[in-house]
Every structure is written in structure tokens, then in C-alpha cells.
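Session log. Operator J.P. requested a structure for one protein chain; no other inputs attached. Running the standard single-chain path with C-alpha cell output.
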Amino acid sequence: MEHQLYVYHDRSHLSTLPTKIKHELSKHSLLFDKDNSVMFCGMVVDDGAAHVFFPRNTTVSKDDNKLLVSKASQLLQAIYRYSLISNSTKTANDEGSELVGDSQLGLIIELLSDYQRNGLYTHKYAVNVKNIGKPDWNKTISKSIAFMSARGPVYFDFYGKKQNYNQDNEITLIHASVLSFLFERFGWLISDTSTSLTKLRTVGKSHLSKKNQISLIKNEMNNIYSDHDIRLLSNLKRYISSEIGRDSSVEVMGIRSFHVMWEHMLSKVLDNVIEVNNLLPTPAYKILNRDGRVVIINAKRNGQRTDIVVKRPEHEDYCVIDAKYYGAHSIESVPKWGDLVKQFFYVTALKTIVPVHAVVNNAFIFPGNNRGPIKSIHMCEQSDGTLIDDVYPPITCYYICPHDVISTYLKSQKLKNQPYWY
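Structure written below.
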């Protein structure tokens, strides 16, 4: 089954969006009113179609649908992977990443992936058997007549239990029903859906109400001990519960502030990243206490936090890199003074903890192709335009394709052909 995919970008103008999609994004506060644009990466699924919002400056070819689906799938899987980290650790960012529908996205991906690995749920039950399988010696001793021999008692009959498996039950039908629906809407996230849908439709569907399905799943969970089966049934129960009382069939899943995720992914895919935030100087305040004495209080929580610092192996060459999620295609869409001040100051701060002879460079990374228009940023004299690089270290600008970052991030690898930062 080929899924209909519509492509947009984060920061797309609202005039390019269908009215219904615009309305759904507005309900989730995913519109940037100042510029009449979208502030969202992810997908909106409605009426058999997926509206996918790629990161800004991403090159997307609509000619190859298979490649397009693959790129869209990677984006959503990367958002899901990031959500697991974001939800388990506190991101040091004032705005936060503002994930939307990440719990449901994770649930859907996990249910689909589990089916690919393990198939449909199988009801397991034990039956009493005689002279088959592994003996149950307590039962055998109590029920069989023993014949004595030189080596001890001999039992001509032994009793035990045999594990049987059955997919002809209501829980399997419930599982198949949920999966059929998910593969129709979201199967493209992980695979070609046609084969899976064909198999599932031969199984049939459950005709119980959602509340009765949940009740049956709860009863089944009382009789199972496998960690996998417990997790699967728990996920099924969660998904069915989430569908009860829904007033819309539209699903919105993604991230509002992609710049936080952009920074996180780059920190994972760049080579030779080092941690320095716990070494940088922190603010100290001289405060008059109640005794009339001036005391110095170190405010670590107000300290500096660089995005990324890389160090050339076996050399004292460093680069302070700031992951900037800007358009960076003209002077109107570049980082402003506040961003520049922080970057200049980070270099000054880093120089306090590295050897005197160390070389410390400055860099911004923007999303885009490798030949973006902004090459570097400098400070200059207002009188004659002379660059004063000796006072303000210039900031070299690089562009890296979001697709490359996302696919490398999902593989837990390092980017190939990285810029030479030093």
C-alpha cells in the first residue's frame, strides 16, 4: 500500500498549508504568529495521508517517492529516539524542545516493530501429559507405582506438563485489529506495508468494544509471565485506551523547537567532542550578608553552557561550535548580536582552561547543503569597515544537510567528510 505523502518544511509560510492542517497545528500551538509560519518538525496524519514537515533548509526531491518515504521515516524515528533521551534527562534549555505526541509516536513504532520481530500474540497454556517431555517428579511420585531396583526406584510412567500455543483466540484478534489499523496509517514509518496487511487481514478482526477489549487484555495479563508478552499487552492496552473518547482522527506527532534536537544530534555525530561545561568559569556574586560582611557566592546554575567543543587529537587545537538552526541564506536570516556575543565570550572562557599556546577557533553550523552563502562572521570598525579579528575571533560558518545528520544519528555513527575545524 503506497501512502500519500505531502511535504513541507519547518518555517513554511501558512499560505502553503491546507486549511485543516493549519487548524490542527494551531490547536497544538505550532504556528509562529510573528512570521505567519509553521514552527514544527514531524507529521500530521489525516484521511489516509501524511503531511510531513522536514527541518528548514532540507533538500527534498519529490520525484523519488520511495526515497521520500525513507527520509520521512528517518525523521520521525529520529524524533522518537530523541524523545527517549529528552524525557529521561533534563535539557539545559530555557524553551525546551516541546515534543508533541511523542508518547503516541513511540507506542506506534514499538507495536509495529514488535510485530515485525515476533509476529502476532500467541496465547500460551500448559496441559498435563504422560510419558512426554520433561517429567514433573513430584506429580510422578504421587501418581505412579515405583518398582525397586539396585539403583533405586524405577517409574514406567511419568507425568509432566507440555506448553501449547494458540493464536485462535480473542487477544490475537485484538492484536491483529490494532495492527491492521496502524499499518494502514503508519506502516510506512518502518517498512513496506502491503505484505503485513495481507497477512493480518487473513486473521480477522475483533468485534468487541474497546472497553471489553481492555478488560480481556487485563485478564490475560494476570496469567502471563513472559516479559515480552507483558510489555506487548501493556502497549496494546495503552493504545486502545488512548483511542477511547478521541474527538478527532488526526494525529500530530513531532517537535516544536527543532533547534534543541539539532544541537543534540550534532553533538552525537561530530568527531572529537569533549565536555568542558563543568570546567568553565562560573559567575560569582559579592553579597552583603546580615552580619554586614561581604561574602562571595558562586552561582554555578547561572554558568555558561557551550553547545559543542571539539579538540584535535594529540594537539592543543580547539573549536567552539554552536549549532544554529537559522535560515542563514541572507543577512536577514543570520544570528543576531546576542548569539555573536555569547560565541565570542565562549572562546574567551575556553582560553582560561586550556594551555596558553592553544589555538581556539569559532564556528556556527547551519542546516543546509554544503555550499551555503554565509562563509564567516566578523566584527569591524564602523569608521572604515576594518575587520578586527584579533579582538573578536571570526566565526566560520558551515552548512550540514539535516538528512545526513539524521541518518548518521540513527546509526549511532559519526558524520563522514566533516569540516576541518582547526
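Operator note: DSSP finds eleven helices and 19 strands in the chain.
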